[in-house]
Amino acid sequence: MDAKSEVLLRQYDYLSGRVLLINPPTDHLLAEFDQSIQAAVWTWNYNDYLYFQAQQANVHFGAEFPEGEFDQAVIFVPKSRELLNYLIHNVAVYLKQGSQVFLVGEKKGGVERAAKQLQPYGKSLKLDSARHCQLWQLTLDCNVEKKALADWAQTYSVSTPKGDLQICALPGVFSQNHLDVGTAVFLPYLSEVTSGKIADFGCGAGVISAYLAKLNPNNRIFALDVDAFALASTKMTFEKNQLEPEQLEIKAVSGIEDAPLFLHAIVSNPPFHQGIQTNYDASENLCKTSRRHLKSGGELWIVANRFLNYPILIEQSFGQCTVKTDQQGFKVLFASTQKNVKES
């Protein structure tokens, strides 16, 4: 069992009634609860959602607070400070004054810093410190106004050959307040991407998706991500720039295996973080298996850190991999499937 869950269970007697578990680890915590606790889960990670769904848990996947009434909430500290602010604020909106809110996290994950974010909402107290984790208790004592999800987004501008784009990025989304270096290196090459059905794997705030939609109104973009906040950000970015809604299809995915088939192109600045951990599985699978989602003559475009072995993985699948550029620590990689004569 995850150490954070173990620490929470050490203080089990504090829990009662309808308890909302926010961002919990995928372990057997729920099985430890007796009938005095009616537990629900809120997650924005689609893989976690599928796990809890398989456990037949009451689980909500999304960027907004789940429907229902709750007596208590347990927040498992996320990586992003801004996302934690969003979570605490929403808990304070939806739970009654005097309700107990618990914050649990690893010391290396910044739980002591995170505990300071509780202070504006009432009296907080450290309940436990064990397994390299801490558990804090907050008694809500404040009146908090509800804020629309869009009010939490940060915006920044990205230039394209067809005019500027305003990017909307919600808390916790990769590169929330500025364009990251990898995507900046990638953008000039998007004009070379074949038009048609294009999947943006790991769409984040929708920079690449919106750029491709802006370049060519005939492009149909499938924005794919594991994170509900990323998917909501991409939708906001399209709306902010008045891009045609028919150009965009948003889909939560557990990996590239959930992508549509017969795509003209797959583009990606692939993700490699899972919480505070580094995890290359999703991006390595993209290199190994994306070919099966492409039409004959379909293209794969990836930007990645120069030190990663993606060119080798792509070559093993596609037979070739072209390095379009190598600058500022990033490579833009290109491969295509063999063109079928009958299809051309």
From TrEMBL:
Keywords: Cytoplasm, Methyltransferase, rRNA processing, S-adenosyl-L-methionine, Transferase. It is an enzyme of class 2 (transferase). The keyword Hydrolase does not apply. Residues 165-333 form the Methyltransferase small domain. GO terms for molecular function: 16S rRNA (guanine(1207)-N(2))-methyltransferase activity; nucleic acid binding. It comes from the Bacteria. Transmembrane segments: none annotated. One of its GO terms (cellular component) is cytoplasm. It catalyses: guanosine(1207) in 16S rRNA + S-adenosyl-L-methionine = N(2)-methylguanosine(1207) in 16S rRNA + S-adenosyl-L-homocysteine + H(+). Pfam families: MTS, MTS_N. The keyword Cytoplasm applies. Belongs to the methyltransferase superfamily. RsmC family. HAMAP family: 16SrRNA_methyltr_C (MF_01862). This is Ribosomal RNA small subunit methyltransferase C. It comes from Acinetobacter schindleri NIPH 900. The lineage of its organism: Bacteria, Pseudomonadati, Pseudomonadota, Gammaproteobacteria, Moraxellales. The gene is rsmC.
